[in-house]
Design goal:
heterodimer, A: alpha+beta, 3-stranded antiparallel β-sheet, B: alpha+beta, 6-stranded mixed β-sheet, 6-stranded antiparallel beta barrel, 8 helices, 20% helix
Chain lengths: 119, 375
């Protein structure tokens, strides 16, 4: 598992990267009431705003952590946005993205580095 | 707040932090926006049981009469279109300070506490309101800012049962009654009011005793702390205005749907008609209807329409959302905004532009859910 400074977690599944937000981020965000997901097959560039999350109070964006193609989105979040709070590291994932070269993940933090950042 | 001005802290800061509060800057104060339960739970708990809010940032102002309560009430009416002269001792009323152009300078509560008036105003408007009152009321009143009292709001259906265990007499109060109760030798100024759409009380008490009193309330069955986040979603569901968002100097009371805060005696044909700033426009709008109106909005789907969302009818930009979010008790996104009068009927469909896409929203009656005041 890798982590971004924007509190996303990145998990490799074959040639895909699964993206979600950390428990810390989900707690900070508060109760999620709406998630807007990207289109499947969309080509995105690192830094693009690909997901919108709305809590009771405010809207936040999730940025694409890498360049690639969105190959799957977590449709369950449309009807049950609170999965992001209930199970951020599991059932609350957002999308899977195909990347050409997984070595682009190397620059992201490992768990210890992430824990240090939020400490 | 000016840049560089340090945040002011509430007397109950330590209690808030011990309860897991997240403090955020609001109107110059470090305010608890939520506790560990989170906004959604705090909101739902307040509707089901009782939420305890710290609203000590709000301004409490005593107007002590120099030449009698009658003269003071009439002078206050020259700033505010409410019936203040007719407000009985032990009663409170919602009011507005209006501007010369008929806009709203602030919204407030004014209580007749027998020997004086007590005015509670918004934190962000406190300094301007004090200056306004001193400029106009000094011949008839001492204008005294209360700076040593906390203000707590206990809201929700279990409020009476919880508070009555500390202050038994409050069970006899009705909505908008005000009394003084004594707890551990301290005067507590109690009003049966609030801003959540629920039955409840607001309690002004010496800061020195605020923590002990709050802890005693929190020990009662059903009472849990609730923050500014829940206060905002509760008042939005109740269709209540937030100053600086739904109402300001550019909105008139009639446009804002606050005509009910102008009693008949202050309207055309009344014994004390007009005589407040902006009366010409406001009385004309009461008679002829305003060009636009504040309405409720129910966005279709799940995406909230936040403050600032542009509203369209066909291709025409017809208005703007002034408050919007998710209503935890409604279970759906809700919003308020201004639209032309012709579009203000419930059921009218408009479109709100959310992230570049126009999404339908139906004009809805306010409040979004029935209020539960004990009248």
């Amino acid at each position: 598992m890798k982590y971004t400074e924007d509190h996303e977690w990145l998990r490799v599944e074959g040639d895909l990267v699964v993206v979600g937000i950390t428990e810390h981020a989900a707690t900070q965000l508060g109760d999620v009431v709406f998630v807007e997901l990207p289109e499947v097959e969309a080509m995105v560039a690192r830094g693009d705003e690909v997901v919108v999350i709305e809590s009771v109070k405010a809207a936040s964006d999730i940025l694409a952590p890498v360049d690639g193609e969105i190959v799957e989105v977590n449709e369950a979040l449309v009807d049950t946005p609170r999965l992001v709070n209930d199970d951020p590291l599991g059932a609350g994932w957002f999308f899977k993205i195909r990347v050409d070269d997984l070595s682009v993940l190397d620059e992201y933090m490992d768990e210890d580095e992430y824990e240090d950042m939020i400490a | 707040m000016r840049d560089g001005t340090p945040l002011r802290h509430l007397a109950l800061k330590d209690l808030h932090l011990a309860l897991g509060a997240r403090l955020v800057p609001f109107a110059g104060y470090a305010m608890p926006v939520q506790y560990s339960a989170g906004v959604m739970q705090e909101h739902l708990h307040t509707r089901a049981a009782a939420g305890l809010f710290d609203v000590s940032h709000m301004g409490q102002v005593i107007l002590w009469p120099k030449v009698g309560m009658d003269r003071l009430a009439l002078a206050f009416e020259a700033l505010c279109p409410a019936d203040v002269a007719g407000l009985g001792a032990g009663r409170q009323r919602y009011g507005l300070f209006t501007g010369k152009q008929g806009g709203i300078l602030d919204d407030l509560m004014v209580a007749n506490r027998q020997t004086h008036l007590l005015v509670v105003v918004n934190a962000a408007c406190k300094a301007a309101d004090l200056a306004h009152m001193r400029a106009h009321l000094s011949p008839v009143a001492e204008v005294i800012e209360v700076t040593d009292r906390a203000l707590l709001a206990l809201q929700g259906p279990l409020s009476e049962a919880a508070l009555a265990r500390l202050l038994p007499d409050v069970a006899r109060m009705r909505f908008m009654d005000v009394t003084t109760q004594v707890w551990q030798g301290q005067d507590i100024w109690v009003s049966r009011s609030g801003y959540s759409g629920e039955d409840g009380f607001e309690l002004s008490l010496p800061e020195t005793h605020a923590q002990a009193f709050a802890e005693a309330l929190l020990a009662m069955p059903g009472v849990a702390p609730a923050g500014l986040g829940a206060r905002d979603s509760l008042r939005l569901e109740a269709g209540l205005c937030l100053y600086g968002h739904d109402i300001d100097t550019t909105t008139s009371p009639v446009e804002a749907g606050l005509g009910w805060a102008i009693q008949p005696v202050r309207r055309a044909g009344g014994a004390r008609a007009g005589g407040f700033p902006g009366a010409e426009r406001i009385l004309r709008e009461l008679a002829d209807g305003p060009s636009r109106l504040r309405v409720g909005l129910r966005p279709e789907g799940r995406a909230p329409m936040r403050e600032g969302t542009a509203l369209f009818h066909g291709d025409t930009h017809v208005g703007t959302v002034t408050s919007g979010g998710f209503g935890p008790s409604v279970g759906a996104p809700i919003a308020m905004g201004y639209v032309p009068r012709a579009l203000a009927g419930p059921g009218t469909l408009v479109q709100g532009e959310v992230r570049g896409r126009r999404m339908p929203a139906a004009v809805s009656a306010l409040p979004f859910r029935p209020t539960a005041y004990k009248r």
